[in-house]
Design goal:
It is built from 5 helices and 9 strands; from the N terminus they run E-E-E-E-H-E-H-E-E-H-E-E-H-H. It is an alpha+beta fold.
């Protein structure tokens, strides 16, 4: 396939200075956002996504309630300023609906919905900036937001995109690379190495697919380490804030004895 842009130069570097197997920088922010039960702001290079999770809570519509498990509801919105074309996309846009459906199908076998019968878990995805690998960023942010909300998962879900240029596999594609290369998105659970999603919107030779798939699974392990580090850091910060809270003063120095005295009174 002839390329309209220089994907790899003679030194083996891509247009943004990365090697072919190198991932872009990932930043994660798990701070509380508004009234959401859990939220995550994740940046893959220049792609930025924020996900908010509400629930598990009572389902809004009885017709959609399931008596044996919770229902996942995924809604996605793309900010008009997220791309250079400044095109406003409605929630009924076909591309947005496809991405929302892919996220929902990815997490249905991972979220332990059987623990919350007759309830609903709402996942709101907000795309703030786009520069390729949008679906992997949405999936990774959704994983972190669900964990932040305390929703039990079987495992982390880590996603990455991959493509092929002149028989050379590439990972974590940018917008220019996605427009010019056959590519695939793979989401894996790192502990069991089970695959929860594989999407391919362009034709790809089966031999090339095998190489990209193996690389994507290994890249998922690297992304998993970053996500675990962020979750652990957030947990430590919350525990530290709880320990720094006001302490109950016991006049006698013995909390059990003070409780007895209070009962006698």
């Amino acid at each position: 396939m002839s390329s309209r842009i220089e994907i790899l130069n003679d030194g083996g570097f891509r247009s943004d200075g990365r090697k072919q197997y190198e991932l872009r920088d990932i930043t994660i922010n798990l701070s509380q956002q508004g009234t959401a039960d859990g939220s995550a702001l994740i940046t893959h290079g220049l792609t930025q996504v924020m996900v908010s999770v509400f629930g598990p809570r009572e389902a809004k519509m009885r017709s959609q309630t399931l008596h044996d498990r919770a229902v996942l509801n995924v809604e996605m919105n793309v900010a008009p300023f997220s791309t250079g074309e400044r095109r406003k996309r409605s929630r009924a846009d076909r591309r947005i609906l496809e991405l929302a459906a892919a996220i929902e199908s990815t997490f249905e076998p991972v979220v332990q919905t059987a623990l919350y019968p007759r309830s609903q878990i709402d996942i709101y995805v907000q795309v703030l900036q786009q520069d390729g690998s949008l679906l992997p960023a949405c999936i990774n942010a959704t994983t972190l937001a669900l964990l932040s909300a305390g929703v039990p998962l079987l495992d982390f879900v880590c996603a990455v995109s991959g493509g092929v240029h002149a028989a050379a596999p590439l990972l974590d594609l940018t917008t220019l690379e996605e427009a010019d290369l056959p590519h695939v998105t793979v989401a894996v659970m790192p502990r069991t190495r089970a695959v929860t999603l594989v999407t391919m919107e362009t034709r790809l030779h089966v031999d090339r697919f095998r190489d990209i798939f193996a690389l994507a699974c290994d890249a998922g392990q690297a992304i998993h380490k970053e996500m675990r580090r962020a979750v652990r850091g957030r947990t430590v910060a919350l525990v530290g804030a709880m320990d720094a809270g006001p302490k109950l003063h016991h006049p006698s120095g013995d909390p059990d004895r003070d409780d007895v005295l209070m009962e006698d009174r």
